[in-house]
Amino acid sequence: MSLPPATLEAAARVLRANDRGGWTVPARDLYPFQWNWDSALIALGWRRLDEARALQELASLLAAQWPCGMVPQIVFHRPDPRYFPGPEVWRTGRTPPTSGITQPPVLASCLARMVARARDRALVEAGARRLLPAIERWHRWFHEVRRDPATGLVVTVHPWETGMDDSPLWDEPLAHVPVPEGLRLERRDLVAVPADQRPRMAHYRRFLALVLCFRAWRWDQRRMAAQSPFRVADPTTHLLLLAAERDLEALARRLGVLDPEAIAARTARLEGAIRRHLQDPESGFIHAFDLAAGRRLAARAACAFLAFRAGLATDGLTRALMAWLAAVPFPLPTVHPADPGFERRRYWRGPVWPVLDRLVAWGLEGEPAARLAAVAAELIRRFGFREYHDPLDGHGLGGRDFSWTAALALDWLADG
Ligand code: DGY
Questions:
Q1: How far is the CA of 98 from the centre of ligand 1 (A)?
Q2: How far apart are CA 340 and CA 54, in angstroms?
Q3: Which residues contact 261 (CB under 8 A, 6 or more apart)?
Q4: What atom of ligand 1 comes closest to residue 73's alpha carbon?
Q5: Exposure of 122 by Cβ count < 10 A (0-12 exposed, 13-18 middle, 19+ buried)?
Q6: How many angstroms does the Cα of residue 374 sit away from the middle of ligand 1?
Q7: Ligand 1 pocket test: which of 29, 74, 160, 167 has the largest number of ligand atoms within 8 Å of its C-beta?
């Protein structure tokens, strides 16, 4: 189902209004800086409007890469009082200021899509050649600096690194994070969005406690990986990294750059670790793993369906996807409505996110892919470019004029 031209023009207007000159804010009032996986997905929208601008979006993010290889979650290009915690809290000592954690790696996959669909092939391929070494260093950082020696899995040290901050996946491991006495917390997010649509205070206190802990460790990434009070293996990070590694290897072969064999070898190791530790042998479902406790977590979330894109589909997982698609009028609910943790309006605890539908559909074909596209198109037509929606009545929630929702309209829903 494709969107009418007027909706696509409105999507382009959202990107232009959120453009800060080479980088794009996810949402004007809520997220006034550059976010990592937002930018990569936003670049796919820019690709339809201006391929040079799309490449610039990725380049401005990679320019903030740390010497160790990490590409940060947030780049604070210029001061803005509307977001907490800002650079004065993170104090990572970087120029431009950045946060000190990362986000799910989708850059390589977005760049691969830009190359595959390029209108100006010479321009986009030249851009890809320039950007790929930095992306490869970031992937290597996941394997080296963030490798859990016991399992071979990638260590995630903060729920913000998963992009799915308050998902019930993190309730159990977060409960072990100590909160310092007298912790001072500001909820500037609640100016733009009602409190029942945002993470609870109890979650936020632990989010901030982790930031302060890592700050006291001077953002020593190896220490964070080894000793963080929150150490998990996140399905989203693993499945998107696996897909991104496959895309990176294919780009390396196509453009004759990097070392595709080395990428293939580490991809095979990552796949083995995911199959051994995250994928349930009977149901095929992909779970989170609490590395601090040494066990797979029982909680289930829709990010498991990114496994289709990562090449880990099983019959059981296909049956689960069908059940989740049928569970609500507007799938995918991020948490199944039969789950006691389900909340229809609260952030990653139930609402349908068009961006997650887009990422899941990227790995699907046929009816399920068409259904997700039809849901996203209907939500956008009825409610505009929102951050997420109530999966029972479709009502728009969270941020408005959301850049990655506008981008997916242009990149995914424009062609039908
Ligand atoms: C927030 O502040 O809500 C973000 O999700 C952090 O990336």
A1: 13
A2: 41
A3: none
A4: 7
A5: exposed
A6: 28
A7: 160
Residue 415's pLDDT is: 73
Burial of 282 from C-beta contacts in 10 A (0-12 / 13-18 / 19+) = exposed
The secondary structure of 37-64 as a DSSP string is HHHHHHHHHHHHH-HHHHHHHHHHHHTT
Q: What is the CATH number of domain 5-411?
A: 1.50.10.10
Active-site residue numbers? 165, 387
Residues with CB under 6 A from ligand 1: 73, 160, 165, 189
Annotated domain spans of the chain: 5-411
Nearest atom in ligand 1 to 99's CA: 7
**Threshold 0.90, pTM exceeds:** yes
Residues in the chain: 416
Q: How many Cα neighbours within 13 Å face the side chain of 318?
A: 12
Q: What are phi and psi of 100, to 5 degrees?
A: -115, 20
The DSSP output letter for 329 is: S
The pLDDT tens digits for 138-197 are 999 999 999 999 999 999 999 999 999 999 999 999 999 999 999 999 999 999 999 999
**DSSP for 176-233?**
TS---TT-----THHHHS-GGGS--HHHHHHHHHHHHHHHHTTT-HHHHHHH-S--EE
* pLDDT confidence tier of residue 322, bands split at 50, 70 and 90: very high
- Distance between CA 237 and CA 147 in Å, rounded? 13
Q: Which residue type does 393 have?
A: D
Q: How far is the CA of 258 from the centre of ligand 1 (A)?
A: 33
Chain position carrying tokens 């496959």: 246
Q: Phi and psi for 353 in degrees, rounded to 5? A: -110, 115
Residue whose C-alpha is closest to residue 403's, from 161, 57, 56: 57
Q: How far is CA 290 from CA 159, 161, 194, 241, in A?
A: 12, 15, 31, 19
